[in-house]
Every structure is written in structure tokens, then in C-alpha cells.
Amino acid sequence: MNHVKEYRQQRGLSQLKLAQAVGVARQTINLIENDKYNPSLKLCLGLAKTLGTDLNSLFWEE
Amino acid sequence: MNHVKEYRQQRGLSQLKLAQAVGVARQTINLIENDKYNPSLKLCLGLAKTLGTDLNSLFWEE
DNA sequence: TAAAGATGTCAATTATAAGTGACATTTCGA
DNA sequence: TCGAAATGTCACTTATAATTGACATCTTTA
């Protein structure tokens, strides 16, 4: 479980807009939000910066 | 730049010991420490937990 | 000063992240 | 309530993370 979807929606972005901002395909965002796979660190950093947050807020549990 | 090497040395672990603890090859740790590639989120989480820290401490800049 | 441990790096292979195109369903504003 | 936007998912391909084995160099320590 991660918090990408929550942060994306708070920012009023669609999966497509977020994908374009980060430079990946829309499907990649969809898969990450639904925990279907394991993104790279570079992509996690891009998501955190684009969403105005940090790695722990998006991906750290406990 | 990341802080894996600093945390590993603080814990008194070799690259090999850390690799075994996290479940990857020694070369993988070496490449990450020298910024030769882009680890997966799952591996970053494993490193953070094994080293008793979190994602931001190891991988977040600024 | 020899030997063992630790590190950096290479080549080749395997596993999987990520891309592309497409289609069905759901959501939401005109 | 119709149509467009948004989302979830499929199959297939491409890029690259990660593995394995090997070897050279550099540190330590016996």
C-alpha cells in the first residue's frame, strides 16, 4: 500500500496528467496505485517531487 | 547520491553481509552505493529496514 | 609478508519494470 | 441522459534491474 492516489487526487491530477508530469505511461501510474508492481527509485523520487511531498510520505509504512 | 554506504558502515556490515540480509547479490549493493543504477522500491524498503532507518534518510535529497 | 577479507568491475544471462496500443467500464459535467 | 474524460485491464514488446561467476586491486591482520 502506498499513498500516491491520495496525493494525486489532493492535487487535482488525473493519472494521465501525473504520468505526463513524471514522464511515464499512464498504465505505470495505474499499476503503482493498485500495488501491481514495484517502481524504481528514480520514479518514486519523481512522483514525490511532482506531488510536492517526499519518499516517506508516499511509500513508508509503520 | 544516497547514504547507503554511510549507514552500512555505521552498522559494521560488509557489502556481502548487507546483501545477504536484504536478499540480493553483493554486486547489487556495490552498484547502488556507487550510483550505477536505479534500485526498485522494494529493495530500497529492505535496505531501510535492515539498516534501521527509513527511505528519506537513505535516498531523499534537499 | 603471506593470506584472507573487502571492494570495484567485467561479461553474460534472467527477471521484471515500463512502454504501446487497444478496449470495456465507470464517473461526471453539459 | 448523453458524451467525454478517467480508470482498470489485457497482450505484447523493449529497457533495464538484478543474478552469477570471475578476476584484479586494496586493506587488514596473523
Describe it for me?
Two copies of one chain form a homodimer. Chain A is mainly α and 62 residues long. Chain A has a single domain (4-56), classed as Orthogonal Bundle (434 Repressor (Amino-terminal Domain)), CATH 1.10.260.40. Chain A has five helices and no strands. In chain A, helix 2 (15-22) crosses helix 3 (26-33). The longest helix of chain A has 10 residues, at 41-50. The first copy, chain A, is globular and about 30 Å long. The structure holds a DNA duplex (30 and 30 nucleotides).
- Strand percentage of chain A lies at under 5%
Tell me the overall shape of chain A: globular
Most extensive chain-chain interface:
A-B, 13 and 13 residues
- Which topology of chain A does CATH recognise? 434 Repressor (Amino-terminal Domain)
Going by CATH, the homologous superfamily of chain A would be: lambda repressor-like DNA-binding domains
Order of helices and strands of chain A: HHHHH
SS-based structural class of chain A? mainly alpha
Structurally, the number of domains of chain A stands at 1
CATH 2nd-level architecture of chain A: Orthogonal Bundle
Spans of chain A of at least 5 consecutive residues whose pLDDT stays below 50 are none
Mean pLDDT over all positions of chain A: 94
How many beta-strand segments of chain A?
0
Quaternary:
homodimer
Please, how many helices of chain A?
A: 5
**End-to-end distance of chain A, in Å?**
11 Å
Radius of gyration of chain A: 10 Å
Level of helix content of chain A? Answer: 55-70%
How many strands, which pairing sense, and closed or not: the largest β-sheet of chain A?
A: none
InterPro entries (chains A, B): Cro/C1-type_HTH, Lambda_DNA-bd_dom_sf
GO molecular function (chains A, B): DNA binding
Keywords (chains A, B): DNA-binding
Domain HTH cro/C1-type (chains A, B): 4-58
